[in-house]
## 1
Amino acid sequence: MATKIITLEELREHTTKDSLWVLLHGKVYDVTKFIDEHPGGDEVILSESGKDATEAFEDVGHSDEARGHLPGMHVGDFEKGASVKAKAYQSTASAAAVENAVEQTSNAFYFVPLAVLVAYFAWRFYS
C-alpha cells in the first residue's frame, strides 16, 4: 500500500486541538488524541503545528518511549521538495518583537518537559 503524500496546505489545515498534525523528519503524524497526555502541555505542540517540528522535537530529547508512539500516529509522508517556512513578518520591528518573545518563553518549553521526565523517573524509582 502506498504511503499518503501530505501537502503543505493539508498540514496547515490541521493546526488546532481538535485536529493536530505535526511534521517530523519528513513524516506527518496526527497527535490529536495525544495532545492532552503530552507532558510538556498542549501549547508546546500547538506552537509547532503547520511547520517542521523536527528541530524542536529533537532539541527536547524525546525518549524511546515517546518515539515508540509515532508509528501509530503516522498519517503520511510530507511532499518531496516542499518547503515549510514560517509566515513572513511585515516589518523588522515586529520580527524583533516576536524573536524576543520566543527567547523569553523558549526556556520554559524545554525545561517543563525535562522536569516532567525527571519527576516521572523519580516516581518510578521510589515507588
## 2
Amino acid sequence: MELPRVVYENLPYGYFLASGALFSLGDSWPLLFSGAVFYLAACIVLVQRSAHRRRDKYKHKQKRVWLPELIYEFLPYAFSAVGILLLMISNSNIVQFIAFSLMIWAIRNLICRHNNRTRKQGLF
C-alpha cells in the first residue's frame, strides 16, 4: 500500500499533533505514555527521512562531532520536548522563559540543519 505524497510527507506532523492532544487531555499515565510514544515516533520518522534525503552524505562523515551521531540527530527534539514539558508543569516566569528559549533553540537547529543538508554542494 502506498500513501499519497501529501499524506506521507505530513504524517510525522500528525503524530506531533496527536501527541499534543494526548498530553493536553489529561494527567493519566496511559495518556502521557501514548503521547510520548507518538512524539518519539514522529522524531524517529523525521530523523530517518533526513538521513535518507541528505545531499551531503559523504561530507558529514569527515567532520568530527563531539557527540555521537544518534544523540546529535535527536538533540533538537529533546530540547523541544523539555521546553514543552517545562511549559506544562511550571507557572514561574523564569522557567517559562527558559522553556521558550529551548524551543526556539530547537527550531533554529532544525532549520539550520535542513538548510545545510539540502543545499547543493558548492565548488569550494
## 3
Amino acid sequence: MAITEPAAVVDARYSEPGATATAWSDALDVLTGAQIFWLSTVRPDGRPHVTPLLAVWLEEALHFTTGGEERKARNLAANPHVTLTTGTNALEHGLDIVLEGDARRVTDDAALTRIAEAYTEKYGSDWTFTARGGELHHAEGGAALAFRVAPRRVFGFRKGAYSQTCWRFPVD
C-alpha cells in the first residue's frame, strides 16, 4: 500500500537563499540505505533516552526491534512517541534525516515474517529471525519485539548547499 508522496516544504530560516526542497526520493534513499539509526524515546519520568539501533524501511514505515525488557521497550509501553535519526557526521556534504512518529508494536506473524526477511536482506545472515507467537526469534536464541513507525513528519537537513526540508504525512 503506497502512500501519496508528501509535499516538501523548505524552511527558509534554516536554508541558504534560493534553496529548493529535497526530493522525497532522496530521503527514501537515506532511510533505506542507512545501517544505523538513533532512536529517541521518553522515559516514564520524562527524561529522554537515545540509543543506536538497526532499522529497515518496509511498507512505508521504519521498523526496528528490541528485547521486551530493554529500556526502549519499557519507554514505548508508556509513551509511543519517537524520533528516529540517521545521516552522516560530515559537515559539508550529505543528508541527515529526522523521522517523527508513533512506534506501534507488530504482532502479526505474517507482517513479522516480512520484517525478518527485510532484516536479513539488509544486514545479512547474522540478523535472521523467525516469526512466532507475535515475536521475532533469533536462531541463536532470544526473542525480540518489533515496532513499526509510520512517519508523521520527516525533516531533511541537506549539507553543502544547506537546506531544511519538511515532509508531512497523514495521521492514521
